[in-house]
Amino acid sequence: MRRVSRTLKTKAISSFRRATTAFNGIDDDGRQTAVLLHLQHAFEMLLKGALRQKGVEVFERGTVGRSISYEKCVRLSRQHLSLTEEQCGTLRAIDSMRDDEQHWIADFSEGLLYLHARAGLTLFDEILESVFSERLADHLPERVLPISTSPPADIEVLIDQQFKQVQELLRPGNRKRVEARAILRGLLALESHTSEDVAVNERDVNRVEKGIREGGALDQVFPRLSTLGTTIAGEGSTLTVHFTKRQGAPVTYIAADDPREAAAVREVDLQRKYYIPPNKLAERVGLTSPRGVALRRELGIDNDGDCVHEFVFGSQRHKRYSDNALRRMKEGVATLDLDDVWERNKPRRRARAQS
Fold it and tell me: What's the CA angle centered on 277, arms 271 and 283, to 5 degrees?
């Protein structure tokens, strides 16, 4: 094992022990904050240790002594640690929950906190075993695993309970708007399970609150959450929790300045979704830049809004590509005759001007 990886793994396990100790503590004061802070830090250290064990660089180019962000850890883990989209969704959700709890006000029911703590334990153990051939049980006594006095409920039930609580808090005369908005921020954070481009902001909270006051149903106000499910197996110390995705209601994306109150969904940060320059896209699939252009033309990637976005900064225009583009490029490299693709789509030289 690499020395750096061993150190990061040790830090990860230490933070996970802190998270489970805080979860099982009988003092509620600051408990939710402590659980989420330590749980998120545990995963960041584990992912960086696992990536270094695989030989992946975890320092940003062009910076002095700055390691990569949690968000980039998750993206690289999908590629180098073979994590599924559902596993990455769990990682993003824990980070989003921690972010709102640490930087502002968020409120999660005990059921939701337990479900994510237990799903975190399941995923932590899976990564630890796949990369380091160790089990979490080797480092933690059973008494400090996240426990609950009630059996875990399905995520649908817990979300519905929270939604009904918000409806009650927002009834005229209750004067519980601050408490209701804290719960709404927590529900918005859960949308990170379903997409990597989710970030909670006050505009989203305002829109969701207005939608609920006007009588909007759960699937209208939170359409993304209708695709979220859980698989719970085992019991006691062998209990495992995995978050899953299922087919839900269609989601409408609207611009950040669109005045419509259609749903709690918008493209909040395009630079997070479209982050790969054209040359890096080609490089990551093992092609030269010209051959990367040819493959993009063959696949129609530059005409697919889910794959490419053009950013305009003054007079400059820059195309950036998403993970969808990277996935399609990898599939193209694996299944197509690249020489034929090159002949059909290679950039043509401009004819010399006739004198």
Answer: 140
Which residues are CB-neighbours of 319 under 8 A, at least 6 positions away? 277, 278, 302, 308, 309, 310, 311
Burial 249-287 (b: 16+ CB within 10 A, else e): eeeeeeeeeeeebbbbbbbbeeeebbbbebeebbeebeb
Q: How far apart are CA 353 and CA 355, in angstroms?
A: 6
d(CA 332, CA 301): 11
Which CA distances in Å does 248 have to 183, 223, 254? 22, 8, 18
* pLDDT per residue as tens digits for the range 13-25: 999 999 999 998 8
Q: Could you read off the pLDDT of 27-64 as tens digits, one per residue?
A: 889 999 999 999 999 999 999 999 999 999 888 776 56
Environment class of 248 (CB within 10 Å of its CB; exposed 0-12, middle 13-18, buried 19+): middle
Rounded CA-CA distance 158/218 in Å is: 12
Phi, psi dihedrals of residue 300, rounded to the nearest 5°: 70, 25
This prediction has a pTM of 0.68
Please name every residue paired with 241 in a beta bridge, in sequence order, or none if there are none.
232
Q: Is-contact 273 318, C-beta < 8 A?
A: no
In the chain, alpha helices (H): 3-24, 31-53, 70-80, 85-103, 110-132, 155-169, 177-190, 202-213, 218-221, 270-273, 278-284, 289-299, 323-335, 338-345
- Please answer whether residues 81 and 54 qualify as being in contact, where contact means their C-beta atoms are separated by less than 8 angstroms: yes
**Residue (of 170, 196, 214, 239) closest to 86 by Cα position:** 196
